[in-house]
Amino acid sequence: MSSRLDIVQDYFRRVDAGDPSVTALFTENVSFYFPKFGPASGKAALVEFGERIRREVPELVHDIDAFRYIVDDDHVVVEGTESGRLRDGTTWPDGEISQGRFCSVFAFEDDLIRRMHIYVDPDFGNADQARLEALRD
């Protein structure tokens, strides 16, 4: 396993544990994207995002052992599943609409993450009824 895969797995373990030292895995000017948060850059913005998402999602678990990876030069792509609990007590995935699927793309500068884009439907609890009704039978 490459060092970069180890770093990516370490990232997910730290996120799941709510470990603030996760920022040590990133460059100072990291750029990142998360739906509804949008694009941002820098460790301060990454910390702000982490605080916001942790308030909304106090329990988060990634199924690291079942991840699928694509590694190409300085990039690691992860396809996986996650589960958790929202602050209102709602748990996901529900196995029907919410599947807990995500894809994250990491780019590295040496052994630090310089770019991270997370592709996920952040409507973990299926609260967006207008889109559910428009897209489901």
Automatic annotation (TrEMBL):
Residues 8-116 form the SnoaL-like domain. Pfam families: SnoaL_2. InterPro entries: NTF2-like_dom_sf, SnoaL-like. It comes from the Bacteria. This is DUF1486 family protein. It comes from Halomonas elongata (strain ATCC 33173 / DSM 2581 / NBRC 15536 / NCIMB 2198 / 1H9).
